Amino acid sequence: xxxxxxxxxxxxxxxxxxxxxxxxxxxxxxxxxxxxxxxxxxxxxxxxxxxxxxxxxxxxxxxxxxxxxxxxxxxxxxxxxxxxxxxxxxxxxxx
Length: 95
Fold this sequence. Notes:
Order of helices and strands: EHEEHE
Helix content: 10-25%
Number of domains: 1
Oligomer: single chain
Strand content: 35-45%
CATH topology: Alpha-Beta Plaits
């Protein structure tokens, strides 16, 4: 099986626990080297976050479970990078 090296997810979470707890919890998953958490939107009851997760072998199912255990829901997986190295997105004429 090929390793997932970068995973970008859009998620919805309650205000509590805060963004720091979400980032720390996902960063604590085995195979995760780092997490960037960006608050995209806040409303009265929930917050929308984008998590960029990098590592040698990201356990996607464990990340999903961790988010759900904290009361969050993954809306979408917006980017996945797999293989021996991280390949950055290339611009095309359509961009």
